[in-house]
Structure formats: structure tokens, C-alpha cells
Write a structure and sequence with these properties.
This protein is α/β, with parallel strands linked by helices. It has a single domain, classed as Spore Coat Polysaccharide Biosynthesis Protein SpsA, Chain A (Alpha-Beta Complex). The chain has 8 helices and 10 strands. The strands form 2 sheets. Strands 1-6-5-2-7-9-8-10 form an 8-stranded mixed beta sheet, sandwiched between helices. Strand 3 and strand 4 form a beta hairpin. It is globular. The N terminus is likely disordered.
Length: 235
């Protein structure tokens, strides 16, 4: 019953925002609310790319997911990157101004997860995304919406490294620091599902240093926290 109500709500909200999500109602099957049972289909390849774009953006002063970089919202760059790598096995986690964020990414090739508890921090959004695909995925690649310099080549290098070592985490390394984008195999899902607050997935990396493969990525050093960060790279 809640599914029918949810699909109607999604459709109405997106139409009200001036955009629709996809070209037909089929896409509305691909919406889930954190804490509910989703309908993520079992894929032929088990890797899903999850774009984390739910945050409150308190330091930025507005929804930075919607801030423009090279003429497009940051979140649009991130979801197109995820889709280039994973196609329909891509997933957008939204929360803050989620209707506008979803509309900025339309049409979605994959799935939308709405995290109503986004204000509690990144950890909950990671858990919500992983929960939506845990029954189908053999791995998840976490992409941040605020790292616009990450390119497809780097993400493909990560996937290739993981394909050779499927039980290992693959992290992006810059200046001796491990961070996102980061790819976790399914064996780490319980730890990701337990995340909450602002801790993110870093504590999972720090707890398993011997199980991490590092792929160098200078671009991963650049993320957007305040408007000045965006102005510095969008020239």
C-alpha cells in the first residue's frame, strides 16, 4: 500500500518542481525511502555506484549539490559519472531539497533513495544507500557529490583493481590519505550499515588498513565545502 502512495507522491513532487524523473512511470518503481523495502533488481554484475548527495551543506550556506560547476549542478556531474561506470546499477541518495536534486539528475538510469534523516550526517546516508542494494550487490562504489574533479578514468582504474582483488577495499589516495571515492566489497556491508552521524566510511578504512588497495588520485584532494572552493576550480 505504501508503495502506491509513495509513487504518487514522488510523481507529484517532481512535476511540481518543474521536472519529471524519467520518461515514463517505470522509473517510479526505482524509488525507495530509507527504512522501507526497496525494489532494486538483481544485476548481472554486482557492483553498484552510489552517489551521496543528501547533506545539509551547512558550511556552504545552501544546497551545494545544486551549485553549478562548469554550467551544471555538482550532483549532475556525479550521477553522470556513476552512470558512465555502472549504468542502471547507479543509485542517488538524496535528502536535503531532494526533489530539486532528483530533478537536476533526471532522467536517472538507476535508482533514487531518499534519506529523511540526512541532517544526522553522512553515515546514515551511506547506510541508506547500502541497505537499498545489499541484497543484490557484491560491492558498492561510493561517490561524493562534492568532488567534481574525479574523472571516469580514475573510477575505471578502481573497478579494475577491485576486479583483481574482490575481497579488498579500493580507496583513492592523495598526499598519503585514503578517502573517497572508495569501493567496498560486500563483506564490509555490515560495517557500512552500522554507520551513523558524521563519521562517514573513514572509520571502516582505518579499521581495516591491511585490506585496502590504494589508487593514486590527486583530484580526490579537492572537494567543495564552501563557495570559495567552487570558485577556485570553476574558472
Amino acid at each position: 500500500m505504501w508503495h502506491a502512495c509513495l509513487y504518487s507522491f514522488i510523481a507529484a513532487a517532481l512535476q511540481h518542481s518543474g521536472s519529471i524523473l524519467g520518461q515514463d512511470r517505470q522509473v517510479y518503481r526505482r524509488v525507495t525511502i530509507s527504512g522501507k523495502t526497496g525494489r532494486v533488481e538483481r544485476p548481472q554484475c554486482g557492483l553498484f555506484c552510489i552517489v551521496l548527495a543528501a547533506g545539509a551543506s551547512r558550511r556552504f550556506g545552501s544546497a551545494k549539490q545544486l551549485a553549478k560547476f562548469r554550467g551544471k549542478p555538482l550532483v549532475t556531474h556525479a550521477i553522470r559519472l556513476a552512470e558512465a561506470v555502472a549504468g542502471q546499477q547507479s543509485l542517488l541518495v538524496a535528502g536535503n531539497q531532494w526533489t530539486l536534486v532528483a530533478a537536476a539528475c533526471a532522467p536517472l538510469a538507476g535508482y533514487l533513495v531518499v534519506n529523511p534523516d540526512f541532517a544526522k550526517g553522512l553515515g546514515g546516508s551511506i547506510a541508506a544507500g547500502v541497505a537499498a542494494v545489499a541484497g543484490s550487490a557484491t560491492g558498492v562504489l561510493l561517490l561524493m557529490a562534492d568532488q567534481p574533479l574525479i574523472d571516469e578514468g580514475h573510477v575505471h582504474d578502481m573497478v579494475e583493481a577491485w576486479s583483481k582483488n574482490p575481497q579488498y577495499v579500493v580507496a583513492s589516495e592523495f598526499d598519503g590519505i585514503d578517502g573517497p571515492p572508495v569501493l567496498f566489497p560486500a563483506r564490509f556491508f555490515p560495517e557500512l550499515l552500522a554507520l551513523q552521524g558524521d563519521s562517514g566510511a573513514r572509520r571502516v578504512l582505518e579499521a581495516n588498513p591491511s585490506r585496502v588497495i590504494r589508487v593514486k588520485c590527486p583530484a580526490a584532494a579537492t572537494d567543495v565545502d564552501v563557495p570559495a572552493d567552487l570558485e577556485a576550480i570553476d574558472r
